[in-house]
Specification:
alpha+beta, Glutaredoxin, Glutathione S-transferase Yfyf (Class Pi), Chain A, domain 2, 4 strands
Amino acid sequence: MGIIITAFERSPDGGKGLARDTRVRWALEEVEQPYKVRFVSFQAMKEPAHLAVHPFGQIPTYEEGELTLFETGAIVLHIATRFGGLLPDVEHARARAITWMFAALNTIEPPILDLTTARIHEGDKPWRDERLPLVADRVRARLTQLSPRLADAEWLDGAFSAGDLMMVSVLLRLRASGILDEYPGLADYVARGEARPAYQRAFAAQLAVNRAQAVAG
């Protein structure tokens, strides 16, 4: 059986590449593996059929034969391990690439998600104006630590890897805030990731779905 992933029937970001299925699409494009997409509505995500494959009622999920996975980090790591091309062959370099995957998800992404929550979901809360600068400063602190790593390097550790794929995907969430532009080296790094043909294909696939949904109303 082939690979099947799930994605939003209508993405909240309107096809800007921020929905997490983009990360999985990108990984599959990098390793040149075909896949099918099963689209789910917000209502369907909370129903038993979807909860059986993702207990938290989110997307994406990954199905391949008898294997079912959820969480983008686990899915991308599986893809990188199973098909090759996203992790170095040398043992220590491979371990470092996986470390950067975890760093993207566990160290860099949490304050970025807090910033998104403060900017969008807490916009009407009385504490929003006081909290927002504090959250933004926590994001800046992480970017200040990350930035030197890419001062003279194209990617995080040698050739492009799953670590870069995950880090670029996470940093993309900062674009609307303007904070990424404060770190030109990181902004250039993200642009290099977006310029990869595999990313372009993944982005176009998600955008096409959202445009079709918009036309359909």
